[in-house]
Amino acid sequence: MNNNRTARSAAALVIGVTAAIALAGCGLTESLNEKSNGHVKTVDYATGAAGKRDQNARLPSWMPDQARSVSETIRTTGSERILRFTLDDPKVLTACRPAVASRKPATLTASWWASGQASKTDTLCDTDWYVLTEGTTVYAYRPETLPQPSA
Q1: What DSSP designation does 146 have?
Q2: Nearest CA to 108 among 117, 121, 120, 99?
Q3: Contact 122/99 with Cβ under 8 angstroms?
């Protein structure tokens, strides 16, 4: 009977340790943080060409390969994106046309994205990227199209 209790205790200990290791490997703190900020990640690339090679980033095809200092914040549970990059000549954005600003405000944030930036856009690239050019810096915003859970 004592051997049976010892075996059960050992099994419970193994299961408990295994569960603790598994949970630690999942990054519980990271999961909670990601959930509280709406499943957001930020990526940075030296050039547009480098960013386009990253299949997880999904940089827009209209962004020139020669774009530099590319930063994108991505809602991983939806379609919203904010993007910033530098171009020597923003006139190379040939897939873009003048348009009214997005009526949908950006909900993503980044240190380089000013509050209200989406309302200043004056160009549409592709079918859903609202763009603002300030000198050689290009800011772009793709509004959310998927329903998001409320916080």
Answers
A1: S
A2: 117
A3: yes
Residue 70 contacts residue 45 (beta carbons within 8 Å): yes
Yes or no: say if 90 and 132 are a contact pair by the CB < 8 Å rule.
Answer: no
* Coil, helix or strand at residue 29: helix
**φ, ψ of residue 58 in degrees (nearest 5):** 55, 50
| C-alpha 50, offset from chain centre | 16
pLDDT digits (tens, 9 = 90+) for 82-100: 999 999 998 899 889 999 9
Single pTM value for the model:
0.72
CA distances from 13 to 5, 10, 83 (A): 12, 5, 49
Residue count (the chain): 151
Place of tokens 């980033």: 57
Q: Could you tell me which of 137, 125, 132 has the C-alpha nearest to residue 71?
A: 137
Q: From CA 19, how far away is CA 117, in angstroms rounded? A: 45
Two structure tokens written together for 90: 């923003």
Q: Please state, in angstroms and rounded to a whole number, the distance separating the CA atoms of residues 64 and 95.
A: 10
SS3 (DSSP) at 21: helix
